[in-house]
């Protein structure tokens, strides 16, 4: 680790602590050349592999933007969206893989979004799963209704 002040090539770790959410390590370092202290933040990298084969770093902001579009006009707070994106990232990191397909990111979004708001879930699923007809929507709505009423008897 280079010193940000004098560019010396080495530094000594003085203190290490896990971040509040446990996803990063904060290290306090001291340069042996100039004796100045600085802080580094270490996180495990997570790469998303897109369908085209291009890779990019995982972005919680991109997940949030997609979910926010699906929830537009729905009674969903920003706090709810932040919690959902955190759950998605935690679920993806729990796999232990450094690279994950973009498809897997979408799958990780669907379940918590369904719990949060079913209309937003349908919006997201329709784009993510490329619904092409009303029959696709009807099939998904039928599945949602079956979850609500496992007996299969519709109310009169």
Task: Provide structural commentary.
The chain is an alpha+beta fold and 156 residues long. It is 44% helix and 19% strand. Strand 4 (47-49) and strand 5 form a beta hairpin. Helix 2 crosses helix 3 (102-116) and helix 3 packs antiparallel against helix 4 (118-128). The longest helix is centred in the middle third of the chain and has 17 residues, at 78-94. It is elongated, with a radius of gyration of 22 Å. The termini are far apart.
Average pLDDT, all residues: 89
What is the N-to-C succession of helices and strands?
EEEEEHHEHHH
**Relative helix content:** 40-55%
Structural class: alpha+beta
Q: Which percent range describes the beta-strand content?
A: 15-25%
Count of DSSP strands: 6
Widest sheet: strand order?
1-2-3
Q: Give the low-pLDDT segments.
A: none
Q: What is the C-alpha radius of gyration, as a whole number of Å?
A: 22 Å
The quaternary structure here is single chain
**Main sheet record:** 3 strands, antiparallel
The total of helices stands at: 5
Described by the principal axes of the CA atoms, the overall outline is elongated
Distance between the termini: 69 Å
